[in-house]
Protein 1
Amino acid sequence: MKVHFITHGCKANQYDTETFRQELEARGADIVDSPDEADACVVNTCTVTHKADRTARKAIRSVKRDNPNTKVVVAGCSAAQRTEDYTGMDEVFGVVEGHDQIEVANLIAPESPYLDKHEEPVGAELLDHHEPRTRGWIKVQDGCDRNCAFCATKLARGASRSRDPDAIVEEAKRLSRRHCELVFTGIHIGHYGRDLSARGESQEHTLSTLIARLLEEVPDVRFRLGSIEATEIDDLMIDLLEQSGGRLVPHLHVPMQAGSNKVLRRMRRWHTREDYRDRLVEIAGRLPYLGLGADVMVGFPGETHDDFLKTRELVEKLPYTYLHVFPFSAREGTAAEEMDGKVDPEVKARRSKELRELAMDKGERYRASRVGQAAEIVVETDDTGMTEDYLRVGLTGDPDTRIGDRIYAPLEMEDGELVARV
Ligand code: SF4
């Protein structure tokens, strides 16, 4: 049985695909790079925008057109939210409402020789590597306890559930044999441990206590935080960023969404622009340099020109090195879908463009500021790598390096691009 995977969306989805891969490999499947030669193809979908749903449907049709004999299994967030849309498609063999690797594997390889021998599916509880081999991800939790008005991910993934810290440490040890960087991922990683602590365990569990433990028990690798809310970065986390000698790398991706308190309230965010700004100013002040990114949404219902200017002003003030700017699009079943004050699509496009240009400018200035400084680079391809502060750099010279290696080199600027001579 040959299986191909197509993954859309966030790192949590990519992690889930890895659990599908490991479970199917355990059942004897071979993973192939192209749908053309696959007996089955798993499309792990995202539902963050309408475009993401469309992309999923397009991928399904294209796979089936190229290889009419392949079985298409659809899983992931869009499959959980819009199950009937997919079960109604002629191209689809089966739908898994969410991310259960056993359900995915049961659709594709229910009668594998592995199962005959073992009777019970073992499941990919602990991953031992990721494909490709550069960075490994550790999913620390799934789901979210917040209630943002625009968010369909929360509807698709449910409440926050944290993984057992011992399992995470064991998985990190396994992954560290193949990867020199591990990234913490999840849907709302800042809430890691809340449900564990609430069970009455004597020990308090938080993301920062987990990371402190991993830094102790899993040597040699560097760790990177996935997207985390600025207001949920606690004091211990800032100490670890400052004092771990770069093992918790100086890179944060902190969703802003909007810079106007009125819009934040309508979005049902729990923080003000001041809470967000003050935490980031404090963190940036403690670190010699910091890769800082954010998601910003423009054109949320009711967003006026003045509201947008407040967002713009916050973007100008904070030391961002990149931004992901999204024009608002209402997701089915969310509170925002029913809100009045829709913003004209042209206005949304203009505001998005303005913020993207501003972010490009800030990114360029940051990259220039790093010239002449040392960087710790994980090699990603034959001629590119990723620095600790999340800059993609070219590798020049005569690199005798392999994908996944970690190298140290000063950064230079060549034809407007950052490069490292190795
Ligand atoms: S914090 Fe808000 S946007 Fe993020 S997953 Fe939770 S509900 Fe969605």
Note: Confidence is low (pLDDT under 50) at residues 117-124.
Protein 2
Amino acid sequence: MRMKDYAEMFNESYQRALAFRDEGPQFLDRFYEIFFSKSPEIAELFETTHMGAQKTMLQDSLFYMRDFFIHRTANDYMERVAKVHGKAGRNARPELYDVWLESLIEAARECDPVFTDDIELAWKIALSPGITYMKHMYDRY
Ligand code: HEM
């Protein structure tokens, strides 16, 4: 059986999604549109957010999430971002991370022209350790 490198499959799909241009909103805009539409609680959390800066930060953070999957080493960046999201911070409840991933995959399916079921699995595998880390830190911060 051919070996699959899920980190690479995720990265390539992510790059295609970012590069995708169409009449409609681009990948990161589409992600936030989908994410906000999932629940008023989510939209409210971002009410005062500068979305331009937010999109750049999300873009950076996905690289750190993949890095965490590959090296399994928590970096200062991950710790700082977990703190921002914790109970005493923005209060991003652990359940919302599942909605976050679902929304990201929906946007990727729209924007990566060669998206497949296997690529969906690659997104899930590559991002799961980072999501587990963030969820676990919720009570701590
Ligand atoms: C693993 C998944 C996630 C990643 C990688 C991520 C990434 C980020 C990053 C990098 C920032 C900017 C932090 C900074 O201020 O420097 C941020 C801010 C924020 N995130 Fe997340 N996030 C994730 C999941 C979520 C979830 C599930 C929610 C809940 C709805 C959420 C809500 C927020 C809010 C409210 C902010 C602050 C926006 C502001 O500054 O106004 N995030 N996120």
Note: Residues 42, 45-46, 48-49, 54, 57-58, 61, 65, 81, 84-85, 90, 92, 96-97, 100, 130-131, 134 surround protoporphyrin IX containing FE (CB under 6 Å).
